[in-house]
Structure formats: C-alpha cells, structure tokens
Amino acid sequence: MPAPLAPYPTVSVPFTPPANGAQSQLVCSGCQNLLIYPVGATSVCCAVCNAVTSVPPPGTEMAQLVCGGCHTLLMYIRGATSVQCSCCYSINLALEANQVAHVNCGHCRMLLMYQYGAPSVKCAVCHFVTPAGASTNTTEQKFNS
C-alpha cells in the first residue's frame, strides 16, 4: 500500500461544510497566498504549494499587516506585539490602532503610517524623511480603537 504524500491530521469526525456556505480566510503558511476555506475546517491544504495550514480556533480574532521587509501580507492573532515574516524573517511590530498615526509624505504626498510619537517617518516610495507633525503641510492623525 503506498504511503500518503502529505501528513494530514487524522480527523475522527468527517468535516461537513456549513449549510449556509460561510467562509473565512487565512494566509498560507507555505507560499503566503490568501486561502479561502469553509468555516469549521481545522486545516486547509493550499492548491498552489500543497502546504497544510492549521486554522486558528473559532473565536480567535485575527489581524493583518504588511511586512516592512518584503511587503508580504502577514496574518496574526490580534494582541500579538510582534510578527516574524516567514518569507524574509523580519520582525514586524504589531501595533494596535491607538498606537498608529498617519502623515502625508513631504515630497510625494503618499499617506504614511508610523508609530505614534515617532519624531519622523521615511517614505518607502521616494525615501524622503518627513518630520511627524512638524510641518503645516502634513496632516497627522492618531487613530483610537
């Protein structure tokens, strides 16, 4: 008898998708693609890279951020203070909404997000360093949760 190609978790009760067709999403642990799956599933197999990603327990609140190193979309459990990117291994700060501020770049006017209270922020597009809240041409706004 041939051995299975991937080690799938053993499920004692066969999975039955919800009748209402409810779906959720998560980021593949292998290739970082966004995976859509039926609510109630315990793991998802990626059709692109065949990696099996575990689904967080029901009721777990998830959040997303873009990696500062490689710009990959990262998904993490809300409340985490930092998230390590599985592509470039950068450590990204996971800031709550009340710790983030926005300012327009002083050169290209791109809307920039930065840690509230920082003295300046460097634009990832044009590399201009904008003083946070120092100019009347920039708009700084703190977002509260």
UniProtKB/TrEMBL annotation:
It comes from the Eukaryota. Its main location: nucleus. Keywords: Nucleus. Pfam families: zf-LSD1 (PF06943). GO terms for cellular component: nucleus. It is found in: Nucleus. InterPro entries: LSD1-like, Multihaem_cyt_sf, Znf_LSD1. Residues 28-52, 67-89, 105-129 form the Zinc finger LSD1-type domain. This is Zinc finger LSD1-type domain-containing protein. It comes from Fraxinus pennsylvanica. The lineage of its organism: Eukaryota, Viridiplantae, Streptophyta, Embryophyta, Tracheophyta.
